[in-house]
Amino acid sequence: MGARTGSQFLEGLRKTRREIWVDGERIEDVTTHPKLRGGAESLAAIFDRQHAYAADCLYVHLDNGQPTNVSHMIPRSKDELRHRHAGLVRLSEGSMGIMGRTPDYMNMKFAAFASAPRVWAGADGRNERGAQNLLAFQRRLAEADLSLTHTIIQPTTDKRTDSQILGNKVTVRKVGQTADGIIVRGARVLATLAPYADEQTVYPGQPIPAGATEYAIAFALPLDTPGLKFLCRDSASAPGADPFDKPLSSRFDEQDAFCIFDDVLVPWDRIFIDGDVEIYNSMRQTGYAISMTTQSTVRALTKLEFAYGLATRMAELIGDHSPATTEMLGEMACYVRMTANALELSLEQAREREDGVWFPNGAVLEPMRAMLAVWMPRVAEIITLIGSHNLLTTPSRAQLDDPKLRPLIDEMLSGADGATADERAAVFRMAWDLVGSSLGGRGFLYERFYLTSAARNKQMLHSRFFDRTRSQALLNDMLSRAKCRLHSH
Ligand SMILES: Cc1cc2nc3c(=O)[nH]c(=O)nc-3n(C[C@H](O)[C@H](O)[C@H](O)COP(=O)(O)OP(=O)(O)OC[C@H]3O[C@@H](n4cnc5c(N)ncnc54)[C@H](O)[C@@H]3O)c2cc1C
To answer: Is the pLDDT of residue 489 over 80?
Structure first.
Protein backbone atom coordinates (compact mmCIF):
# COMPACT_ATOMS: atom_id res chain seq x y z
CA MET A 1 0.00 0.00 0.00
CA GLY A 2 2.66 2.60 1.00
CA ALA A 3 1.87 6.05 2.35
CA ARG A 4 -1.75 6.30 3.51
CA THR A 5 -4.11 9.24 3.16
CA GLY A 6 -5.88 10.79 6.14
CA SER A 7 -9.14 9.05 5.35
CA GLN A 8 -7.39 5.67 5.08
CA PHE A 9 -5.83 6.32 8.49
CA LEU A 10 -9.23 7.15 10.05
CA GLU A 11 -10.79 4.12 8.37
CA GLY A 12 -8.11 1.93 10.00
CA LEU A 13 -8.90 3.36 13.45
CA ARG A 14 -12.62 2.65 12.97
CA LYS A 15 -11.96 -0.99 12.08
CA THR A 16 -10.34 -1.99 15.39
CA ARG A 17 -12.44 -2.36 18.55
CA ARG A 18 -9.79 -1.11 20.95
CA GLU A 19 -10.33 -0.71 24.71
CA ILE A 20 -9.82 3.01 25.22
CA TRP A 21 -11.20 4.65 28.35
CA VAL A 22 -11.60 8.40 28.76
CA ASP A 23 -13.14 9.48 32.07
CA GLY A 24 -15.76 6.86 32.91
CA GLU A 25 -16.49 5.94 29.33
CA ARG A 26 -15.20 3.26 26.99
CA ILE A 27 -14.91 5.01 23.63
CA GLU A 28 -16.50 3.18 20.72
CA ASP A 29 -15.27 5.36 17.87
CA VAL A 30 -12.17 7.45 18.55
CA THR A 31 -12.59 9.32 15.27
CA THR A 32 -15.97 10.85 16.14
CA HIS A 33 -16.07 11.12 19.94
CA PRO A 34 -16.06 14.84 20.92
CA LYS A 35 -13.12 14.34 23.31
CA LEU A 36 -10.94 12.61 20.70
CA ARG A 37 -12.11 13.81 17.31
CA GLY A 38 -9.84 16.88 17.16
CA GLY A 39 -6.68 14.79 17.59
CA ALA A 40 -7.87 12.20 15.06
CA GLU A 41 -8.54 14.90 12.46
CA SER A 42 -5.16 16.57 12.98
CA LEU A 43 -3.34 13.26 12.62
CA ALA A 44 -5.36 12.52 9.48
CA ALA A 45 -4.22 15.90 8.15
CA ILE A 46 -0.62 14.85 8.83
CA PHE A 47 -1.16 11.66 6.77
CA ASP A 48 -2.52 13.88 3.98
CA ARG A 49 0.42 16.22 4.44
CA GLN A 50 2.89 13.54 3.40
CA HIS A 51 1.18 13.52 -0.03
CA ALA A 52 0.93 17.33 -0.20
CA TYR A 53 4.72 17.55 0.35
CA ALA A 54 5.56 14.30 -1.36
CA ALA A 55 8.98 15.42 -2.60
CA ASP A 56 10.13 15.88 1.01
CA CYS A 57 7.96 13.42 2.93
CA LEU A 58 8.01 10.33 0.69
CA TYR A 59 10.65 8.04 -0.79
CA VAL A 60 10.43 4.93 -2.95
CA HIS A 61 10.66 1.80 -0.80
CA LEU A 62 13.41 -0.49 -2.10
CA ASP A 63 11.43 -3.73 -1.56
CA ASN A 64 8.09 -2.82 -3.13
CA GLY A 65 8.60 0.38 -5.14
CA GLN A 66 5.80 2.11 -3.21
CA PRO A 67 5.91 5.78 -2.16
CA THR A 68 6.59 5.48 1.57
CA ASN A 69 6.93 7.92 4.48
CA VAL A 70 10.57 9.03 4.85
CA SER A 71 10.58 8.16 8.55
CA HIS A 72 10.71 4.46 7.53
CA MET A 73 13.87 5.02 5.51
CA ILE A 74 17.11 3.27 6.43
CA PRO A 75 19.44 5.97 5.03
CA ARG A 76 22.34 4.82 2.87
CA SER A 77 23.92 8.23 2.21
CA LYS A 78 24.15 11.74 3.55
CA ASP A 79 21.75 12.87 0.83
CA GLU A 80 19.17 10.39 2.07
CA LEU A 81 19.62 11.73 5.61
CA ARG A 82 18.97 15.25 4.30
CA HIS A 83 15.91 14.05 2.39
CA ARG A 84 14.55 12.46 5.57
CA HIS A 85 15.32 15.62 7.52
CA ALA A 86 13.32 17.77 5.10
CA GLY A 87 10.38 15.37 5.41
CA LEU A 88 10.50 15.38 9.22
CA VAL A 89 10.44 19.19 9.21
CA ARG A 90 7.34 19.20 6.98
CA LEU A 91 5.58 16.65 9.17
CA SER A 92 6.35 18.57 12.39
CA GLU A 93 4.85 21.74 10.87
CA GLY A 94 1.49 19.89 10.72
CA SER A 95 1.07 20.53 14.47
CA MET A 96 3.64 23.35 14.95
CA GLY A 97 5.65 20.74 16.85
CA ILE A 98 2.97 20.46 19.54
CA MET A 99 2.17 16.81 18.83
CA GLY A 100 5.32 15.01 19.90
CA ARG A 101 4.29 11.54 18.87
CA THR A 102 3.14 11.85 15.29
CA PRO A 103 3.77 8.41 13.76
CA ASP A 104 7.17 9.41 12.37
CA TYR A 105 8.55 9.29 15.94
CA MET A 106 8.04 5.53 16.26
CA ASN A 107 8.75 4.87 12.58
CA MET A 108 12.24 6.30 13.04
CA LYS A 109 12.94 4.01 15.97
CA PHE A 110 11.79 0.88 14.14
CA ALA A 111 13.75 1.81 11.02
CA ALA A 112 16.87 1.98 13.22
CA PHE A 113 15.94 -1.33 14.90
CA ALA A 114 15.51 -2.95 11.48
CA SER A 115 18.84 -1.56 10.30
CA ALA A 116 20.61 -3.84 12.78
CA PRO A 117 19.05 -7.33 12.81
CA ARG A 118 22.37 -8.72 14.07
CA VAL A 119 21.84 -6.88 17.38
CA TRP A 120 18.41 -8.51 17.78
CA ALA A 121 19.72 -11.92 16.76
CA GLY A 122 22.69 -11.79 19.17
CA ALA A 123 26.30 -12.38 18.13
CA ASP A 124 25.75 -16.16 17.98
CA GLY A 125 22.37 -15.89 16.25
CA ARG A 126 20.50 -17.36 19.21
CA ASN A 127 17.57 -14.96 18.73
CA GLU A 128 17.40 -15.26 14.92
CA ARG A 129 13.66 -15.89 15.07
CA GLY A 130 13.09 -12.70 17.09
CA ALA A 131 15.23 -10.73 14.63
CA GLN A 132 13.22 -12.08 11.67
CA ASN A 133 9.95 -11.19 13.45
CA LEU A 134 11.26 -7.67 14.00
CA LEU A 135 12.24 -7.30 10.34
CA ALA A 136 8.86 -8.59 9.15
CA PHE A 137 7.09 -6.21 11.52
CA GLN A 138 9.06 -3.18 10.35
CA ARG A 139 8.38 -4.09 6.70
CA ARG A 140 4.65 -4.27 7.41
CA LEU A 141 4.78 -1.04 9.44
CA ALA A 142 6.25 0.80 6.44
CA GLU A 143 4.11 -0.90 3.78
CA ALA A 144 0.81 -0.49 5.62
CA ASP A 145 1.87 2.94 6.99
CA LEU A 146 0.66 2.04 10.48
CA SER A 147 0.51 4.33 13.49
CA LEU A 148 2.24 3.04 16.66
CA THR A 149 2.10 3.78 20.33
CA HIS A 150 4.69 2.46 22.78
CA THR A 151 5.35 1.90 26.46
CA ILE A 152 8.90 1.43 27.65
CA ILE A 153 8.73 2.85 31.19
CA GLN A 154 7.82 0.93 34.38
CA PRO A 155 4.95 2.49 36.33
CA THR A 156 5.77 4.01 39.71
CA THR A 157 4.46 2.22 42.78
CA ASP A 158 7.20 2.66 45.35
CA LYS A 159 10.29 4.55 44.24
CA ARG A 160 12.45 2.71 46.81
CA THR A 161 11.90 -0.57 44.98
CA ASP A 162 10.74 0.24 41.44
CA SER A 163 14.19 0.42 39.95
CA GLN A 164 15.03 -3.07 41.20
CA ILE A 165 12.82 -4.72 38.56
CA LEU A 166 13.39 -8.20 39.99
CA GLY A 167 10.30 -9.20 41.93
CA ASN A 168 8.31 -6.21 40.62
CA LYS A 169 4.73 -7.44 40.22
CA VAL A 170 3.38 -4.29 38.56
CA THR A 171 5.53 -3.79 35.52
CA VAL A 172 4.82 -5.86 32.43
CA ARG A 173 6.42 -9.31 32.49
CA LYS A 174 6.05 -12.80 31.07
CA VAL A 175 3.82 -14.92 33.31
CA GLY A 176 3.24 -17.95 31.12
CA GLN A 177 3.53 -19.66 27.78
CA THR A 178 1.17 -21.65 25.54
CA ALA A 179 1.50 -23.37 22.18
CA ASP A 180 0.50 -20.05 20.56
CA GLY A 181 2.85 -17.65 22.32
CA ILE A 182 3.68 -16.04 25.65
CA ILE A 183 1.31 -14.54 28.22
CA VAL A 184 2.22 -11.11 29.59
CA ARG A 185 0.77 -9.32 32.59
CA GLY A 186 1.35 -5.94 34.23
CA ALA A 187 1.37 -2.31 33.19
CA ARG A 188 3.54 0.28 31.55
CA VAL A 189 3.51 4.05 31.08
CA LEU A 190 2.66 6.15 29.19
CA ALA A 191 1.13 5.26 25.84
CA THR A 192 0.99 8.60 24.06
CA LEU A 193 -1.16 8.43 20.90
CA ALA A 194 -2.90 5.23 22.09
CA PRO A 195 -6.39 6.14 20.81
CA TYR A 196 -4.89 6.91 17.41
CA ALA A 197 -2.56 3.93 17.09
CA ASP A 198 -2.99 0.73 15.13
CA GLU A 199 -0.49 -1.21 17.23
CA GLN A 200 1.07 -1.16 20.70
CA THR A 201 4.80 -1.82 21.04
CA VAL A 202 6.93 -2.85 24.00
CA TYR A 203 10.70 -2.83 23.64
CA PRO A 204 13.81 -2.08 25.70
CA GLY A 205 14.06 1.41 27.14
CA GLN A 206 16.20 1.27 30.24
CA PRO A 207 18.67 -1.53 31.01
CA ILE A 208 17.48 -4.29 33.35
CA PRO A 209 19.58 -6.40 35.76
CA ALA A 210 21.02 -9.85 35.04
CA GLY A 211 18.51 -12.56 35.86
CA ALA A 212 15.46 -10.41 35.07
CA THR A 213 14.48 -12.79 32.25
CA GLU A 214 10.72 -12.48 32.56
CA TYR A 215 11.06 -8.70 32.15
CA ALA A 216 13.30 -9.00 29.07
CA ILE A 217 10.52 -8.99 26.48
CA ALA A 218 9.87 -7.02 23.30
CA PHE A 219 6.87 -7.34 21.01
CA ALA A 220 4.17 -5.57 18.99
CA LEU A 221 0.42 -6.19 19.11
CA PRO A 222 -2.67 -4.84 17.34
CA LEU A 223 -4.47 -2.42 19.63
CA ASP A 224 -7.60 -4.57 19.77
CA THR A 225 -5.74 -7.58 21.21
CA PRO A 226 -7.83 -9.09 24.04
CA GLY A 227 -6.64 -7.98 27.50
CA LEU A 228 -4.99 -4.79 26.29
CA LYS A 229 -6.57 -1.78 28.03
CA PHE A 230 -5.74 1.93 27.86
CA LEU A 231 -6.78 4.35 30.59
CA CYS A 232 -6.42 7.80 29.05
CA ARG A 233 -5.78 10.94 31.06
CA ASP A 234 -8.50 13.58 31.12
CA SER A 235 -9.03 15.02 27.69
CA ALA A 236 -7.37 18.37 27.02
CA SER A 237 -9.22 18.81 23.77
CA ALA A 238 -11.90 21.34 24.81
CA PRO A 239 -14.80 19.52 23.13
CA GLY A 240 -17.36 21.83 21.59
CA ALA A 241 -15.11 24.90 21.79
CA ASP A 242 -14.85 27.24 18.83
CA PRO A 243 -11.41 26.64 17.24
CA PHE A 244 -10.81 30.41 17.45
CA ASP A 245 -11.12 30.19 21.24
CA LYS A 246 -9.00 27.04 21.66
CA PRO A 247 -6.89 26.98 18.50
CA LEU A 248 -4.39 24.39 19.76
CA SER A 249 -6.33 22.20 22.21
CA SER A 250 -9.19 21.78 19.76
CA ARG A 251 -6.66 20.25 17.34
CA PHE A 252 -3.52 18.90 18.94
CA ASP A 253 -4.40 16.74 21.97
CA GLU A 254 -2.56 13.50 21.11
CA GLN A 255 -3.61 11.82 24.41
CA ASP A 256 -1.57 9.71 26.84
CA ALA A 257 -2.70 6.47 28.46
CA PHE A 258 -1.77 4.08 31.23
CA CYS A 259 -1.52 0.70 29.52
CA ILE A 260 -2.69 -2.50 31.23
CA PHE A 261 -1.77 -5.96 29.97
CA ASP A 262 -4.36 -8.22 31.59
CA ASP A 263 -2.94 -11.68 30.73
CA VAL A 264 -2.37 -10.82 27.10
CA LEU A 265 -1.32 -13.51 24.61
CA VAL A 266 1.55 -12.40 22.39
CA PRO A 267 1.75 -14.78 19.39
CA TRP A 268 5.18 -16.24 18.60
CA ASP A 269 5.53 -14.29 15.36
CA ARG A 270 5.03 -10.99 17.25
CA ILE A 271 7.84 -11.56 19.75
CA PHE A 272 11.19 -9.82 19.19
CA ILE A 273 12.86 -10.75 22.50
CA ASP A 274 11.78 -13.46 24.92
CA GLY A 275 13.88 -13.64 28.07
CA ASP A 276 17.32 -12.67 26.76
CA VAL A 277 18.59 -9.95 29.12
CA GLU A 278 21.87 -9.48 27.27
CA ILE A 279 20.16 -8.79 23.94
CA TYR A 280 17.54 -6.65 25.72
CA ASN A 281 20.28 -4.46 27.15
CA SER A 282 22.16 -4.08 23.87
CA MET A 283 19.60 -2.09 21.85
CA ARG A 284 21.58 1.17 21.89
CA GLN A 285 23.87 -0.52 19.35
CA THR A 286 21.08 -0.32 16.76
CA GLY A 287 21.39 3.48 16.68
CA TYR A 288 17.73 3.89 17.66
CA ALA A 289 18.54 6.53 20.31
CA ILE A 290 20.13 8.73 17.64
CA SER A 291 17.05 8.38 15.42
CA MET A 292 14.75 9.18 18.34
CA THR A 293 16.74 12.26 19.33
CA THR A 294 16.88 13.38 15.69
CA GLN A 295 13.10 13.24 15.25
CA SER A 296 12.39 14.85 18.61
CA THR A 297 14.90 17.67 18.07
CA VAL A 298 13.40 18.45 14.65
CA ARG A 299 9.96 18.53 16.23
CA ALA A 300 11.19 20.68 19.15
CA LEU A 301 12.83 23.16 16.77
CA THR A 302 9.54 23.71 14.96
CA LYS A 303 7.80 24.30 18.30
CA LEU A 304 10.52 26.71 19.43
CA GLU A 305 10.32 28.64 16.16
CA PHE A 306 6.54 28.82 16.43
CA ALA A 307 6.72 29.95 20.09
CA TYR A 308 9.30 32.61 19.22
CA GLY A 309 7.08 33.98 16.45
CA LEU A 310 4.10 33.97 18.79
CA ALA A 311 5.94 35.70 21.65
CA THR A 312 7.35 38.34 19.30
CA ARG A 313 3.90 39.15 17.94
CA MET A 314 2.46 39.27 21.49
CA ALA A 315 5.01 41.91 22.44
CA GLU A 316 4.30 43.92 19.28
CA LEU A 317 0.55 43.80 19.83
CA ILE A 318 0.88 45.50 23.20
CA GLY A 319 3.73 47.80 22.17
CA ASP A 320 6.13 46.15 24.61
CA HIS A 321 9.65 47.08 23.51
CA SER A 322 11.06 47.14 27.03
CA PRO A 323 14.64 45.89 27.59
CA ALA A 324 13.32 43.05 29.77
CA THR A 325 11.01 41.71 27.07
CA THR A 326 13.56 42.23 24.30
CA GLU A 327 16.08 40.24 26.35
CA MET A 328 13.62 37.38 26.84
CA LEU A 329 12.84 37.33 23.12
CA GLY A 330 16.57 37.24 22.47
CA GLU A 331 16.83 34.31 24.88
CA MET A 332 14.21 32.46 22.81
CA ALA A 333 16.16 33.28 19.66
CA CYS A 334 19.22 31.66 21.29
CA TYR A 335 17.28 28.44 21.90
CA VAL A 336 16.08 28.42 18.29
CA ARG A 337 19.57 29.04 16.92
CA MET A 338 21.30 26.50 19.17
CA THR A 339 18.75 23.79 18.34
CA ALA A 340 19.02 24.52 14.61
CA ASN A 341 22.83 24.51 14.89
CA ALA A 342 22.81 21.12 16.60
CA LEU A 343 20.63 19.59 13.90
CA GLU A 344 22.69 21.08 11.09
CA LEU A 345 26.00 19.98 12.62
CA SER A 346 24.64 16.49 13.28
CA LEU A 347 23.86 16.20 9.56
CA GLU A 348 27.10 17.80 8.44
CA GLN A 349 29.06 15.38 10.63
CA ALA A 350 26.85 12.39 9.72
CA ARG A 351 28.61 9.03 9.97
CA GLU A 352 28.44 5.85 7.94
CA ARG A 353 28.24 2.66 9.99
CA GLU A 354 30.39 -0.26 8.86
CA ASP A 355 27.33 -1.83 7.16
CA GLY A 356 26.66 1.28 5.03
CA VAL A 357 23.80 2.72 7.10
CA TRP A 358 24.06 6.45 7.80
CA PHE A 359 23.23 8.26 11.05
CA PRO A 360 23.47 11.93 12.09
CA ASN A 361 26.26 12.52 14.60
CA GLY A 362 24.61 11.34 17.83
CA ALA A 363 27.20 12.98 20.08
CA VAL A 364 26.19 16.39 18.73
CA LEU A 365 22.51 15.79 19.48
CA GLU A 366 22.90 14.07 22.85
CA PRO A 367 22.93 17.27 24.98
CA MET A 368 19.67 18.38 23.35
CA ARG A 369 17.81 15.78 25.40
CA ALA A 370 18.86 17.44 28.63
CA MET A 371 18.67 21.04 27.44
CA LEU A 372 15.32 20.98 25.61
CA ALA A 373 13.69 19.61 28.76
CA VAL A 374 14.81 22.85 30.46
CA TRP A 375 14.45 25.31 27.57
CA MET A 376 10.87 24.36 26.72
CA PRO A 377 9.48 25.10 30.21
CA ARG A 378 11.51 28.36 30.21
CA VAL A 379 9.92 29.33 26.88
CA ALA A 380 6.49 28.74 28.43
CA GLU A 381 7.51 30.94 31.36
CA ILE A 382 8.69 33.71 29.01
CA ILE A 383 5.33 33.65 27.23
CA THR A 384 3.52 34.08 30.55
CA LEU A 385 5.88 36.90 31.59
CA ILE A 386 5.34 38.79 28.33
CA GLY A 387 1.63 38.02 28.30
CA SER A 388 0.74 38.80 31.90
CA HIS A 389 -2.99 39.64 32.34
CA ASN A 390 -3.33 40.07 28.58
CA LEU A 391 -3.44 36.28 28.33
CA LEU A 392 -6.83 36.46 30.01
CA THR A 393 -8.31 39.61 28.49
CA THR A 394 -9.21 37.80 25.31
CA PRO A 395 -12.80 38.08 24.05
CA SER A 396 -14.17 34.84 22.68
CA ARG A 397 -15.38 34.33 19.12
CA ALA A 398 -18.98 34.64 20.31
CA GLN A 399 -18.21 37.93 22.09
CA LEU A 400 -16.39 39.30 19.05
CA ASP A 401 -19.36 38.36 16.89
CA ASP A 402 -21.93 39.98 19.20
CA PRO A 403 -23.12 43.19 17.49
CA LYS A 404 -23.64 45.02 20.81
CA LEU A 405 -20.30 44.03 22.35
CA ARG A 406 -18.19 44.41 19.23
CA PRO A 407 -17.96 48.22 19.12
CA LEU A 408 -16.95 48.24 22.81
CA ILE A 409 -14.35 45.51 22.24
CA ASP A 410 -12.97 47.41 19.23
CA GLU A 411 -12.76 50.55 21.36
CA MET A 412 -11.19 48.98 24.44
CA LEU A 413 -9.44 45.78 23.43
CA SER A 414 -7.58 46.54 20.24
CA GLY A 415 -3.77 46.52 20.11
CA ALA A 416 -0.82 48.83 19.56
CA ASP A 417 -0.08 50.39 16.15
CA GLY A 418 -3.65 49.86 14.95
CA ALA A 419 -3.78 46.10 15.55
CA THR A 420 -7.34 44.78 15.48
CA ALA A 421 -9.15 43.34 18.47
CA ASP A 422 -9.55 40.15 16.41
CA GLU A 423 -5.83 39.65 16.00
CA ARG A 424 -5.04 40.58 19.57
CA ALA A 425 -7.57 38.06 20.90
CA ALA A 426 -6.41 35.37 18.46
CA VAL A 427 -2.73 35.72 19.36
CA PHE A 428 -3.16 35.90 23.13
CA ARG A 429 -5.65 33.02 23.09
CA MET A 430 -3.15 30.95 21.13
CA ALA A 431 -0.46 31.83 23.66
CA TRP A 432 -2.64 30.83 26.61
CA ASP A 433 -3.60 27.61 24.86
CA LEU A 434 0.12 26.87 24.42
CA VAL A 435 1.18 27.51 28.03
CA GLY A 436 -1.83 27.86 30.33
CA SER A 437 -4.68 25.62 29.17
CA SER A 438 -5.04 21.97 30.04
CA LEU A 439 -3.15 21.19 26.81
CA GLY A 440 -0.49 23.72 27.87
CA GLY A 441 -0.06 21.97 31.24
CA ARG A 442 0.26 18.62 29.55
CA GLY A 443 2.78 20.11 27.11
CA PHE A 444 4.86 21.39 30.02
CA LEU A 445 4.95 17.89 31.57
CA TYR A 446 5.63 16.27 28.21
CA GLU A 447 8.62 18.47 27.40
CA ARG A 448 10.08 17.83 30.85
CA PHE A 449 9.76 14.05 30.77
CA TYR A 450 9.13 12.50 27.37
CA LEU A 451 12.79 11.60 26.92
CA THR A 452 13.12 11.15 30.69
CA SER A 453 14.04 14.01 33.03
CA ALA A 454 16.79 16.55 32.36
CA ALA A 455 18.47 15.32 35.54
CA ARG A 456 18.79 11.75 34.30
CA ASN A 457 19.91 12.91 30.84
CA LYS A 458 22.65 15.10 32.30
CA GLN A 459 23.82 12.27 34.52
CA MET A 460 23.91 9.81 31.62
CA LEU A 461 25.75 12.32 29.42
CA HIS A 462 28.47 12.85 32.00
CA SER A 463 28.84 9.31 33.26
CA ARG A 464 28.33 7.29 30.05
CA PHE A 465 28.39 9.15 26.77
CA PHE A 466 30.52 12.27 26.79
CA ASP A 467 34.02 12.04 25.35
CA ARG A 468 36.17 13.82 27.91
CA THR A 469 39.53 13.19 26.19
CA ARG A 470 40.23 16.82 25.31
CA SER A 471 39.07 18.20 28.66
CA GLN A 472 41.34 15.72 30.41
CA ALA A 473 44.25 16.58 28.11
CA LEU A 474 43.86 20.31 28.75
CA LEU A 475 43.79 19.76 32.48
CA ASN A 476 46.83 17.49 32.36
CA ASP A 477 48.69 20.06 30.26
CA MET A 478 48.01 22.78 32.81
CA LEU A 479 48.84 20.51 35.72
CA SER A 480 52.17 19.68 34.13
CA ARG A 481 52.80 23.39 33.55
CA ALA A 482 52.13 23.78 37.28
CA LYS A 483 54.83 21.12 37.76
CA CYS A 484 52.41 18.64 39.26
CA ARG A 485 53.52 15.01 38.89
CA LEU A 486 50.54 12.97 37.61
CA HIS A 487 51.93 9.46 37.96
CA SER A 488 54.31 8.01 40.49
CA HIS A 489 57.09 5.82 39.03
C1 LIG B 1 3.18 13.57 28.76
C2 LIG B 1 4.05 12.35 28.81
C3 LIG B 1 4.01 11.45 27.76
C4 LIG B 1 4.79 10.28 27.81
N5 LIG B 1 4.70 9.39 26.79
C6 LIG B 1 5.37 8.22 26.88
C7 LIG B 1 5.23 7.21 25.87
O8 LIG B 1 4.54 7.40 24.87
N9 LIG B 1 5.86 6.03 26.05
C10 LIG B 1 6.65 5.78 27.15
O11 LIG B 1 7.20 4.69 27.25
N12 LIG B 1 6.81 6.72 28.12
C13 LIG B 1 6.19 7.91 28.02
N14 LIG B 1 6.30 8.83 29.02
C15 LIG B 1 6.97 8.42 30.26
C16 LIG B 1 8.30 8.99 30.35
O17 LIG B 1 9.15 8.20 29.57
C18 LIG B 1 8.69 8.98 31.82
O19 LIG B 1 7.81 9.83 32.52
C20 LIG B 1 10.09 9.48 31.93
O21 LIG B 1 10.97 8.46 31.52
C22 LIG B 1 10.42 9.93 33.34
O23 LIG B 1 10.33 8.86 34.24
P24 LIG B 1 9.71 9.09 35.67
O25 LIG B 1 8.34 9.63 35.49
O26 LIG B 1 9.90 7.85 36.42
O27 LIG B 1 10.52 10.27 36.28
P28 LIG B 1 12.01 10.30 36.91
O29 LIG B 1 13.03 10.13 35.86
O30 LIG B 1 12.05 9.40 38.08
O31 LIG B 1 11.98 11.77 37.38
C32 LIG B 1 11.11 12.23 38.45
C33 LIG B 1 11.82 13.33 39.22
O34 LIG B 1 12.99 12.81 39.83
C35 LIG B 1 14.13 13.52 39.39
N36 LIG B 1 15.19 12.53 39.19
C37 LIG B 1 15.09 11.35 38.57
N38 LIG B 1 16.23 10.68 38.59
C39 LIG B 1 17.09 11.43 39.24
C40 LIG B 1 18.40 11.26 39.61
N41 LIG B 1 19.09 10.15 39.31
N42 LIG B 1 18.98 12.29 40.27
C43 LIG B 1 18.31 13.40 40.55
N44 LIG B 1 17.03 13.61 40.26
C45 LIG B 1 16.43 12.64 39.62
C46 LIG B 1 13.73 14.21 38.11
O47 LIG B 1 14.43 15.41 37.88
C48 LIG B 1 12.26 14.47 38.32
O49 LIG B 1 12.05 15.69 38.99
C50 LIG B 1 5.59 10.02 28.96
C51 LIG B 1 5.63 10.94 30.01
C52 LIG B 1 4.87 12.10 29.95
C53 LIG B 1 4.93 13.05 31.11
So the answer is: no
